[in-house]
Amino acid sequence: MMEIKELIAFGMSPAEAQVFNEVLRFGRISIGSLLKQVELHRATIYDSLRKLIADGFVSFVEEGKTKYYRPNINAFENFLNEKKGEYKKEMETLEKIKESLKSKANTGEQSVQTFLGTKAFKILFYGMYEYCIKNDIEYLYLGHGGNMSEIIGEKEYIKTQKLKKKLHVKCRIILAEESKKLKYSKHVYGNRRYLGSYVESPVDFWVYGNTVMITLWKANPLITISIKSRNLALSLKNYFEILWKMAKS
Fold this sequence. Notes:
By secondary structure, this protein is of the alpha+beta class. Helices cover 47% and strands 21% of the residues. A seven-stranded mixed beta sheet has the order 4-10-9-8-5-6-7, sandwiched between helices. A three-stranded antiparallel beta sheet has the order 1-3-2.
């Protein structure tokens, strides 16, 4: 359990901090259990949970008809990276949370997580950069192109591409032929090829390591699904290689 004031330093309200603490304490928890554990009004708990999900601090997995909520450690690192200041105490809080999560790790952990909102998407996206650099691997992207720039904003999109170039993040990208005409196209960095109708979809895929990230751009709020599955990642990589041979530079 974290101190409420420690979590408030990360932009949470007292109610959000209380709800997050319970999610952290259990590692994964259903809304029913959460309502029993947190001594707040029902509506306040729901509002706080929605805000935590929107800010990326909490994600959820679905098992049958039940949603289980889980803490997302990457959101804290992203917050600190954006803060650009003195954050020694916050780093200590982050280490406490990491240790708490390690103690709850188990082999039955679900491999599918769902995230809502653009902020959560950016956390996952920059996390992919970090993973690729750390493990010296490339990521693969398959999609129509243009959706990311439209949803997160052109300024933020340009920032992602400049950072990718600066950090030498390796990637191969397959886009729709018609995306060449879009304004964002001149900012794309990476080894890219183009196809026609093969990538006509409101859904984009990123594959790196054993992780598949899927973003549903037309959803409101934005939905990003992170799947850790060696078999799925391998299947999509093989599919990507087939399309890569068919695509044109």
